[in-house]
Structures are given as structure tokens and as C-alpha cells.
Design goal:
There is one protein chain. The chain is mainly β. Helices cover 6% and strands 26% of the residues. It has four helices and 27 strands. Strands 1, 2, 5, 6, 7, 8, 10, 15 and 27 form a nine-stranded mixed β-sheet that branches. Strands 16, 17, 18 and 19 form a four-stranded antiparallel β-sheet that branches. Strands 3-4-9 form a three-stranded antiparallel β-sheet, with no helix packed on it. A hairpin with a 4-residue loop joins strand 3 and strand 4.
Length: 569
């Protein structure tokens, strides 16, 4: 965490960066946050900061896309009641270095955040100083003399361009229509993949030109509306699954957090455990692969909130006395819940992806391959990545290279002939020989240089456009399309973007998002399952009208998307 204080006229800006992390994934950094150019007549000011990250790109061939950061601003006026800053909706109102450009993400008349990316083709590291985002603080009801604390967040994203793609991989998988294979309805018996060639509406059923699912009988079904994105239109997607560092940042700059939905501190112990003695480093879960702690004046304060498989044991401390949360392993993926993931997406101005967008992000515009994983082949590592741990602990005698550090990586058996993924077969092994279940570092399989006969995309486990970990580590929470819907039925999910404001219970309150698990499921598999192909839908859970069972949305992570702003060519 970086803190800056600057006396600016009558306002004191205590600006600090909590999000994105200081050593996360491609090392996105937000520094030197200040409040500049305060105009008390217009009630505007510029939030100024430096932004950098590594291994960036903008290419005009192949995927023809770029990576970006989604930058949004939180603030409070001394009461720890965090709010989203209303940024100006006009791109030209903001100031960037010549090498950078931006597109504003707008909700109605509010600027929720900015996609900042390279202005011209190229690859390498970005280091842009003096970025200024214009904040309409008067529209937020902030007075000219308020004591402002700013929190600038940056999340790495990948641009997925507009275009056609295939859903389904030609493999017939059993199950009711809501979990069966996606196919072209023209000749249902062939199970041929369906080609999305426009943004919809998309006809549904076992008829010519329609998307269908194996086993779906003839009938009148609701078309997939444009409010349920089918993946054809451009969108941005988080480059990595949300990290434990990002989850801590969410906790530290969010108000109205209830106890029940959120993983704050977790433990392997049964419900209502006694807090550990001072000096115990943290309360851990998943064999020490996820955990958080808080410190007041150098004294450890452990506040258990929820026990996996158990009951909530305490609410979050009340604002404004709540302690800051520190992640023990900030670079590892955060094992979430569907409720917690949706709250993060609402808070950050993103939204869940649809199951069609998931397949687009993984496969890209190329033809489907039967049984393929996110990297486009059906070849995958099958051996553990761990080596003998020189300092074994009670959980395991195996460890990754630099286990738990920002450069955590496979110690052995990195697959140079096929894809790599953190799944049940490749995990650590305990003395008993059983796998040690839990998340690993996001983007762990990417390397500065690659050996072997296969392309970097395959070895790194990346999707076609450069999105990491779509297969394995944590499952991908998606909005599922319910094929059962009759013609005049209401859609269960509408792709509205989060507005940065949670409900009084700390949960998402976006009008178009359901408050139950009926409309959601998971894709891509997690550390707990065998490797799951891109088009495998059975993990979506129960068929309509039942919601997926609690244990069917298994090990979800946090990965959001946002429909790309429409910009002039």
C-alpha cells in the first residue's frame, strides 16, 4: 500500500493505492496518487497517478487485440463510507502520455472507469506518469473543503474483438438441455458446433440456423436476446482470475459488508474456533494456500468470519473502526463464492460473463477442436508440478518453486509438449499421496521464454486472445443460458454493468442480475477436478427449474468482463 498526503487549497488529499497489487501477475502498479487542478467553480478535480505494468501488447495480426487496465476510483470523506468517483464521460476530458489512450466505461451519465492501453502497436512494459482522470466531485455531493481519501484501482484486462466464433466442440455430452453440449440446430444428430455470426437475437432450438443443445426436443423457445451477450460483440475480460490481493483491496475500500457472504478469514478448524494466539501468522484454509490477517499497531488481530463448510462466526468490525486486511499470499487466485464474486463485480463496475463469452475468450475465431482446453488442444500435463519440500509442514512434504511467493512456479514437470493447468492431477501431494487442494498464483504458467516444440500459448495455458487460467486453478463463474425458456419468458440475466454501489447487506444489487444461483454456473474446472474441456457444460449444475446445488458451483474464482465501449473508428 502506498500512501500520499498533499495539502491542496482547502482540501487535504490522503490518496492511497490498495487494489491490483504491488507484485501481481504482470506487476500492475498505481503510484503517486494526488488530487490536482481543483476547480471549485465547476466542482471538478483531476485524480493524478502513475500507472505501469509489464508484458503488455497491442497487435494487428493474429488475435488483433490488446491488453489494458480497467482503472476506477473510490473515495470517502473521512467516514470510511466508500463510494465510486463519478469520472467525466468524455474521453478528451482526461489527460494521458502520448503513448497511451483510453476509452471511458460509462453507466448512463456516470463515468465508472477507464480502459487505458497502448495507443499504437507494440509489446513490452508500460510506464506512464502523470495520468489525469477528471472527477466531477460536485455531482457526487462532495464539498470543496472535504477531507478526501482516494483509492485508485487498476485491474489488468484483455480486449476481445468483435467477430464470429464457434460454440461447442462437436463432442456429444449427456445431460438435460441446460447442461448438454452446445450444437448447431440445423442437423442435431451431428452435434456440430454452432457459429455465432452476429450479435443476435439468436434463434434457439433443433432447427436450421439456431443454437441448440444435445437432446433438446422440438418446440418454441425464447431466442437469446442481445441483452444476454452471445460473444459476437467486443468485450473486455479480466486477464487473470481475481487474486487474494484484489479481494483484500475490495474489503479494505468497501462499506456495508455483511458476514454471511464473505470470505474474510477462514480456517480448517470446525465452526466457532477460538482465535489463535498472538504470533500465529494468520488463519488459513485450503492447506495453507489462502489466508488473510490484520494488524493494529504491530499486534496481530484475527477475526474469524466464515468457516468453509461451517457457519459465520462474527460480522465485520463496524465502520469506521474496521481493521485493514492483508493477504498472506496476494498473488494467488482468490477462492470465492458466487455471492462474493458478484459483489466484487458490482463494486468494480464490471459484470459476469455469459457462457458464450467464455467460449469466445478461450477459443477465439478458429474452428473448434474436440475436447480442447483453453489453449486450443486436448493435450495437457498429467504429472505433479511439485518437488520435495526441504522444510515440510504438517500439510504436505511437497512444494512448488518459490511456493507462496510472487514468482511461484512449477518446480518440475512443466509440460513443453502440451498445455499446462493447475488441476487435480498436477497439484501438490501430501505424505499420504492425496492431492493438496487449493489455488495457485494467477498466470503461473506464463514464462519469459519457452522451450520445446509447442507455441507459447499452449505451454502457458492461455486462451486465444491472451487470457490466462481459463482452464483450471479456479472455476469461471458464468451466466448460463436456460434453453428451457418459452418464447414469452423473461430472461434470467441481463448484462448490466455494476454501478460500484453494493446493497445494504453488502451484496450486489444490479437490476439485471439474479440474487439466486439459478442463472449462474461454472466453466473451465478448478484445482479440485480433472481437467475440464472448454465446451464441457455439466459443471453448470442442475437443469432448469432447479438452481445448481451448493456444491455444484464448485470453487469459483472472480473474473469479470465489461462490454467494450463503442468508439469512433
Amino acid at each position: 500500500m502506498t500512501t500520499r498526503h498533499a495539502k491542496i487549497g482547502a482540501a487535504l488529499c490522503a490518496a492511497h493505492m490498495l487494489a491490483a497489487s504491488s507484485a501481481l501477475a504482470n506487476n500492475v502498479q498505481v503510484t503517486s496518487v494526488t488530487l490536482q487542478n481543483i476547480d471549485t467553480a465547476a466542482d471538478t478535480a483531476n485524480v493524478q497517478f502513475n500507472l505501469s505494468w509489464e508484458n503488455s501488447w497491442r497487435v494487428t495480426s493474429g488475435p488483433s487485440n490488446w491488453d489494458a487496465t480497467w482503472v476506477f476510483v473510490k473515495y470517502h470523506t473521512g467516514d470510511l463510507n466508500w463510494k465510486s468517483a463519478n469520472l467525466d464521460v468524455v474521453d478528451a476530458s482526461h489527460s494521458l502520455p502520448a503513448a497511451a489512450t483510453l476509452d471511458m466505461g460509462v453507466n448512463g451519465t456516470r463515468g465508472m472507469g477507464a480502459f487505458i492501453y497502448r495507443g499504437a502497436p507494440g509489446t513490452g512494459n508500460n510506464a506512464w506518469n502523470g495520468i489525469k482522470l477528471k472527477w466531477n466531485y460536485g455531482a457526487d455531493g462532495v464539498s470543496d473543503t472535504a477531507l478526501i481519501t482516494l483509492d485508485v484501482h487498476a485491474v489488468e484486462m484483455v480486449y476481445v474483438p468483435q467477430g464470429s466464433f464457434f460454440a461447442g466442440d462437436g463432442v456429444v455430452r449427456a445431460g438435460a438441455a441446460d447442461i448438454a453440449s452446445l450444437i448447431d440446430g440445423t442437423v442435431p444428430a451431428t452435434a456440430a458446433p454452432f457459429n455465432f455470426v452476429n450479435a443476435g437475437p439468436t434463434i434457439v432450438g433443433p432447427v436450421a440456423g439456431a443454437i441448440s443443445a444435445t437432446g433438446l426436443v422440438a418446440g418454441a423457445y425464447k431466442p437469446v436476446p442481445t441483452t444476454f451477450p452471445n460473444g459476437f460483440d467486443a468485450f473486455y475480460i479480466m486477464k487473470y482470475e481475481g487474486s487474494q490481493g484484489q479481494w483484500a483491496a475490495f474489503l479494505n475500500s468497501t462499506s456495508n459488508l455483511g458476514a454471511v457472504p464473505y470470505t474474510y478469514f477462514e480456517t480448517l478448524v470446525s465452526p466457532n474456533p477460538a482465535p489463535p494466539a498472538v504470533g500465529f501468522p494468520l488463519v488459513e484454509t485450503w492447506w495453507g494456500r489462502q489466508g488473510f490477517y490484520s494488524v493494529d499497531n504491530g499486534v496481530l488481530n484475527v477475526v474469524p468470519i466464515r468457516v468453509i463448510g461451517g457457519n459465520p462466526v462474527a460480522p465485520l468490525p463496524a465502520v469506521p473502526t474496521r481493521r485493514l486486511v492483508t493477504p498472506r499470499w496476494p498473488d494467488r487466485a482468490f477462492l470465492s463464492t458466487d455471492v462474493a464474486a458478484l459483489a466484487y463485480l458490482d463494486w468494480s463496475g464490471l459484470r459476469p460473463m455469459t457462457e458464450f463469452e467464455f467460449e469466445k475468450a478461450a477459443r477465439g475465431p478458429v474452428p473448434s477442436v474436440a475436447g480442447e482446453f483453453a489453449w486450443g488442444t486436448a493435450d495437457i500435463a498429467l504429472l505433479t508440478y511439485a518437488m520435495a519440500n526441504p522444510a515440510p509442514n504438517p500439510a504436505t512434504s511437497m512444494a512448488l518453486l518459490n511456493d507462496g511467493l510472487p514468482n511461484e512456479a512449477p518446480a518440475v514437470n512443466y509440460n513443453e509438449a502440451g498445455g499446462n493447468a493447475w488441476v487435480r492431477a498436477t497439484q501438490l501431494k501430501a505424505d499420504s499421496g492425496l492431492p493438496v487442494l487449493g489455488p495457485c498464483r494467477v498466470g503461473m504458467f506464463a514464462k519469459p521464454a519457452y522451450n520445446g516444440p509447442t507455441p507459447p500459448r499452449i505451454q502457458s495455458g492461455a486462451g486465444y486472445y491472451g487470457v490466462m487460467d481459463l482452464t483450471g486453478n479456479l472455476s469461471e463463474l458464468v451466466a448460463r443460458w436456460p434453453f428451457h425458456l418459452v418464447t414469452n419468458a423473461a430472461a434470467l440475466f441481463v448484462a448490466d454493468h455494476g454501478d460500484g454501489v453494493l446493497g445494504t447487506n453488502g451484496q450486489q444489487n444490479v437490476a439485471g442480475w439474479p440474487t439466486t444461483a439459478v442463472a449462474f454456473g461454472v466453466r473451465g474446472g478448478s484445482f479440485e477436478e480433472s481437467a475440464v474441456p472448454v465446451s464441457f457444460r455439466s459443471l453448470l449444475g442442475a437443469a432448469w427449474p432447479a438452481a445448481p446445488a451448493a456444491n455444484s458451483i464448485r470453487n469459483p474464482g472472480i473474473r469479470g468482463v465489461r462490454s467494450a465501449p463503442v468508439v469512433a473508428p
